[in-house]
Each structure stands twice: as C-alpha cells, then as structure tokens.
Amino acid sequence: MLDVQAIRAQFPALQLMVNEQPLVYLDSAATTQKPQCVIDAISRYYSQQNANVHRGSHSLTAKATSEFEAARQCMADFIGASSSKEIIWTRGATEAINLIAQTYARSTLKAGDEILVSEMEHHANIVPWQIVAEQSGAKVIKIPMTTECQLDFDAYQSLISDKTQIVALAQVTNVTGTRQPIESAIELAHQHDAIVVVDGAQGIVHEKVDMQKLNADFYVFSGHKLFAPAGIGVLYGKQSLLESMPPWHGGGKMVESVSFEKTTFTQLPGKFEAGTPNVAGAIALAEAVTWYQSYALADVEDHIHQLQTSCYEALKGIDDIDILGYQPNSSVITFVIDGVHHQDIATLLDQQGIAVRAGNHCAHPLMDALGVKGTVRISFAIYNTQQDVERVVQAIEKAVDML
C-alpha cells in the first residue's frame, strides 16, 4: 500500500502555490516532477565531484567516471540489456530516434524501402523517419488506428512486406495512453527481416521491460518523464546493430586516434557519445530509477488506475464533454468540450492552480484522425491523490459553466 502523502512530501514542486491555490499537477505525461533525492544527486555532483569523465587522471574525474558508468550499468539492469555497451546516453528519446535514423537507417536504406510508422506516434517517432526517407529514397507508410484508438493490426499485417526495413512504434501512446501490441509487432517484423524501434518514453514509467524477452532492436526513453532531469535519455540497441552503425557526431571521446590522414573510432558505447556528456543527468537518472524501484510497480499502477477511473466516471457526467479514445488502466484522460477551445479550458484550470496539458500534444496525425485541432489531457503519476481528482473535476465543471 502506497503512502502517497509521504511520497508527495519528497517533491518540492508539489508544495507550491499557483495563482494562490495549492498546485495540482496533472501533466506528468509531459514531464514528471522530481523528488528531492534526484535534486540532491545533481547538487552533489556539481558541488563535490564536478569533473569531466574518461579524461584526466585526478581524483575528481575518477569518481565522476565511476558514477557515470555505474549509472549506465543501472540502466542496463533496469531494462534487461545484455551489456552496458548497449546503453547509449542521449539528450532524450527524440535525440535517440534521430541517432538511429541518421546512423542505422541512413546507412542501410535505399530507394523503394519502406518504414512503417503507427498513426498514433509522437512527432519524435515520425519526423526523423520522414527526413531519412527523403535522404534515401525510402517511403514512410502509415499504420492506421482503429476507431477505438488501437493499432489496426490487420492493416499492419497487410502493409508489412519484404520492402519493410523498419517498424517504429510507441510502447504507450502519449495522447490516449494506448498500449500498443509491440510484442506481436516485433515478432511479425522479424519474420520479414525488419528491425523495430520502440519509443518507450511513456511506457517505461508504467511497466517493467526486459530487452531479452521483448527482443526489440532499439528501445528509447527520456529521463524527464521518469522523475529525472531534462536533457538525459537512453538509447538501447542490440550490440551487433550498434557495432555495425557509423558514428553520428564527431569530436572528443568517440575516437581512438585522429590525424589528418585518418581517424579511427572507439568501441561501444563511446562511439556514439562525442563531447562532454551530461554527467549529472546520467547520475540523477540512475538515482531516479533507484528511487522509483523502491516502490512496488503493481501498487503504483493500481493507484494510478484508481485515480484515472475515478476521474473518468466523474467527467463523463459533465454536459458537452467528449472523452476521446479512453483506455482503461492507463494514466491519461484526453477530452474536448463542445464549442470551447482546449486552451481556454487549460487556462481556466491554471487560474485554479491546476496544471494540465492542452494542444495537439506533438501528434498532428492523431489529432487529424480524431477530427480535432487539439485536446485537454490529464495525466496521473505516483504522487497524485483522490483530492487532485476532485479538484480538477470541480474546476472543469466551473470552467464549463463560465464558458
């Protein structure tokens, strides 16, 4: 059983007053708040061990390097990678997908090849594939969704072929919280010798993943959605694939030797980590994962699902509200109100101290499929309470009355 009040007490931001109201933070799908232990990890690095890693011979750099690589091993253990060499530090899921597109994809795709991408993807899992398709002559093919906001697996089966080289899917979608059938999608893709890129930015927070069982070729996620700071993320790739890929960025650390005649590159994972990395971010991400794993994930998810269900039951009774693509047992609720702009709703909620997300959620194709320009999204996390649900429902009722 979670002691949610004790959890909330660990988050300084949740103690804030916004517009003279106690903050109700319901935008964790965009970014999570950070517990004090993660904030302390960042402060501790900069105040006690600030140094570059894998360079120099003094004590500070040795300590920083040790913790930096321990954080990498923590990520490998967290997702069941076979080696820490399969963990590449990035700025986040977006950079990780771009890295895959501009290294693996650009070096292997040719004219006529196809990349299958779900209609429900975040722009970060669409635009990089469009860019590399233009560069290579390949095509990006949309996998449509059903009217229930599920991946149309029948359509996927009909679209995949020997032309398919890459399949790109989110584990969990960011607008509706749809859990996509990535296991079956990976199995089918491998039957056609295609590789699969899984965007785990939303999913990693809500379920345990094991790369040995999942068998994804690439898996990416961002730290800032996992109670860690912005600017740090993880690219997992099968070691054989990473070894076959050319570097993306050039500079220090990713080389063995440099001359004007020839440069040779270092081994994994350094080949993909040019320049000074986000050392504090990596250490803080490991701290966040360790903190989150101190709670039973089943208890966390039960708590979130109860909040989502309670909120959904209350909202569906409000006149003129349309809840879009509702997925039970997820962490989000997305809705529109007839005749009212989504941004107006979010602004009125903010005036009452309630933070939600309004807009297209970086998912224009999904908005087009839903027939809307934007929505309001409520998203729950471990630190939310039933009181948060009651306040947001009351605030929405008040906003509807005003508008």
Please tell me about this protein's structure.
The protein is built from 14 helices and 17 strands. With 403 residues, it is α/β, with parallel strands linked by helices. It has a seven-stranded mixed beta sheet, sandwiched between helices. Helix 11 runs parallel beside helix 14. The relative contact order is 0.16.
Amount of helix: 25-40%
What class do helices, strands and sheet pairing give? alpha/beta
According to DSSP, the number of beta strands is: 17
Shape: globular
Determine the strand fraction and express it as a percent band: 15-25%
Strand order of the largest sheet: 4-10-9-8-7-5-6
User: How many strands, which pairing sense, and closed or not: the largest β-sheet?
Assistant: 7 strands, mixed
Alpha-carbon Rg, integer: 22 Å
Amino-to-carboxy terminus distance = 40 Å
Number of helices: 14
Sequence stretches where pLDDT stays below 50 over 5 or more residues: none
What's the short version?
The chain is of the alpha/beta class and 403 residues long. The protein has helices at 4-8, 36-48, 59-79, 93-108, 127-136, 153-159, 182-191, 211-214, 239-244, 279-292, 297-315, 342-351, 364-370, 386-402, and strands at 17-18, 21-22, 24-25, 87-90, 114-118, 139-143, 164-170, 195-199, 218-222, 233-237, 255-258, 263-265, 321-323, 332-337, 354-355, 357-359, 375-379.
List the helices and strands and how they pair.
Layout: H1 4-8, E1 17-18, E2 21-22, E3 24-25, H2 36-48, H3 59-79, E4 87-90, H4 93-108, E5 114-118, H5 127-136, E6 139-143, H6 153-159, E7 164-170, H7 182-191, E8 195-199, H8 211-214, E9 218-222, E10 233-237, H9 239-244, E11 255-258, E12 263-265, H10 279-292, H11 297-315, E13 321-323, E14 332-337, H12 342-351, E15 354-355, E16 357-359, H13 364-370, E17 375-379, H14 386-402
Parallel strand pairs: 3-15, 5-6, 5-7, 7-8, 8-9
Antiparallel strand pairs: 1-2, 4-10, 9-10, 11-12, 13-14, 14-17, 16-17
